[in-house]
Amino acid sequence: MSNNTTMKYACEQFDGNTNFGIWQSMVKDILVQRGLLKPLLGNKPESMDLDDWEELQGKAVSTILLYLAPKERRDGKVGGRRWSVKFGRGGEGWVDLGEGRRVGLREE
């Protein structure tokens, strides 16, 4: 297999009715495969430019949001609760879907 192979990953979009634990695990696996989990963990590498780091963080968050159902993205709510993108003091990030449902570092 070539290093330039593009892989596609199937994951059901989260709509508030989907099993959150399974969806969360699948989205994390997709982030790992795309090399986008580390930007959600904080700790920017010293050798990386801040603009490049912030771009990676944006791609990680965007990847998570792509797996929200269109209505939930448009309305800004999942199961009646507002979702939000958050970054902590250490640079770690996550998407909070309400009711303790988070994807990224701060999962509960």
Written description of the protein model:
A hairpin with a 5-residue loop joins strand 4 and strand 5. By secondary structure, the chain is an alpha+beta fold. The N and C termini lie far apart (37 Å). The strands form two sheets. It has a three-stranded antiparallel β-sheet with strand order 3-4-5. It has one domain (20-104). The chain has helices at residues 20-33, 38-41, 50-66, 70-75, and strands at residues 77-78, 81-82, 84-87, 93-96, 102-104. Helices cover 38% and strands 14% of the residues. The longest helix is centred in the middle third of the chain and has 17 residues, at 50-66.
Care to count the β-strands? 5
How big a fraction of the residues is strand?
5-15%
The main sheet orders its strands as 3-4-5
Overall tally of structural domains:
1
Biggest sheet record: 3 strands, antiparallel
| Amino-to-carboxy terminus distance | 37 Å
Q: Assign a percent range to the helix content.
A: 25-40%
Molecular shape: globular
Compressed to H and E, one letter per element, the order equals HHHHEEEEE
Q: Round the Cα radius of gyration to an integer and report it.
A: 14 Å
Topology:
Blueprint: H1 20-33, H2 38-41, H3 50-66, H4 70-75, E1 77-78, E2 81-82, E3 84-87, E4 93-96, E5 102-104
Antiparallel strand pairs: 1-2, 3-4, 4-5
Quick summary:
The chain has 108 residues and is α+β, with helices and mostly antiparallel strands. It is 38% helix and 14% strand. The chain has one domain (20-104).
Which tags fit this structure?
two-stranded antiparallel sheet, 38% helix, 108 residues, single chain, globular, alpha+beta
